[in-house]
Design brief:
heterodimer, A: 113 residues, mainly beta, seven-stranded mixed beta sheet, B: mainly beta, six-stranded mixed beta sheet, four-stranded antiparallel beta sheet
Chain lengths: 113, 114
């Protein structure tokens, strides 16, 4: 059963610490999305990759957030330094080219204290 | 830019009641339209989709019809169950050049009471 895998599922960290979230897209999918979900803002697109190249990261705070795809099986989202306002659930999703659906992971719940 | 507007929640219904969640969109080009469902503690799962005007997507008793004339994609179910309690997201996808924009509505919380 192919699925998007995210680790860790939960992360509690202190303000100022570096946080790294990982995502393994479905094998063969060449598009990867990072979303942030909060009660206040809903689902926000942070970054979008195609064939490992970032196509749109306009939704991501550049001073502290960075997203990469070291290879086709791994996407990472880093926050350095983390702040309490970064507390949210971060979702990774993958898909195929064209107007097809995105497949979501279960998310990483981040709490910055 | 592209956007999706959903009816405000939360929505509370009794079991076996009829459900409608309204969704309208604004998009350049020819979007595909989706309904996703999110159960507590889980990621979003695709519920149904429609890729062109007048298409009807259906799954698990839920239906939605792509109405280009009214730019709408309302979600309906004839008889809801307690297990349908979740957050429902309307979304659209438009491909522009090499980029694909996937835009979500704000979500509608549905609670079904026994």
């Amino acid at each position: 059963d192919a699925r998007v895998t995210q680790t860790p599922r939960d992360k509690v960290t202190e303000m100022g610490q570096e946080v790294t979230m990982r995502c393994q897209p479905i094998l063969g999918h060449n598009t990867v999305f990072w979303y942030r979900q909060t009660m206040k803002q809903g689902l926000e697109l942070l970054a979008y990759f195609r064939n490992r190249a970032p196509l749109d990261d306009s939704g991501m705070p550049k001073d502290r957030f960075s997203a990469e795809m070291p290879d086709a099986t791994l996407a990472t989202l880093k926050i350095q330094p983390s702040e309490p306002r970064d507390s949210a659930v971060y979702f990774c999703a993958s898909g195929l080219p064209g107007n097809t659906e995105a497949f979501f992971g279960q998310g990483t719940r981040l709490t910055v204290v | 830019g592209d956007s999706v507007t959903q009816m405000e929640g939360p929505v509370t219904l009794s079991e076996e009641a009829f459900l409608t969640i309204n969704c309208t969109y604004t998009a350049t080009g020819y979007p595909s339209l989706f309904w996703y469902v999110q159960y507590p503690g889980e990621g979003l799962q695709l519920l149904l989709k429609a890729t062109k005007a007048d298409d009807k997507g259906s799954n698990k008793g839920f239906e939605a019809t792509y109405r280009k004339e009214t730019t709408s994609f309302h979600l309906e179910k004839g008889s809801v169950q307690v297990s349908d309690s979740a957050v429902y997201f309307c979304a659209l996808s438009v491909t522009s050049g090499s980029a694909r924009q996937l835009t979500f509505g704000s979500g509608t919380q549905l609670t079904v009471l026994p």
